[in-house]
Amino acid sequence: MPSTLHQEYDVRVLAVRPWGLDVVLPDGTAGLIDNAKDPRWPDGDQQAAVGAVVRAVVLDDERDPVRMSALDDDRAVARALREAAGH
Description:
five-stranded mixed barrel
């Protein structure tokens, strides 16, 4: 299951970094949710996120780790793009 642009996955949070969350996709691919793409930042307890499963969408699948977003708006845009492409 390759991580694909605009696809949504349930990802597990592995670590909290100053710039965002290190996550892993179900296929083992490493991902990053930047602070600006995390709906709990800056007010939530980021350390409590470690081990949590978060629904996120791939924004950039050409970077390592892949860049992701957990924002509802980004997931809605990705869904619309998938529907327009017939996926």
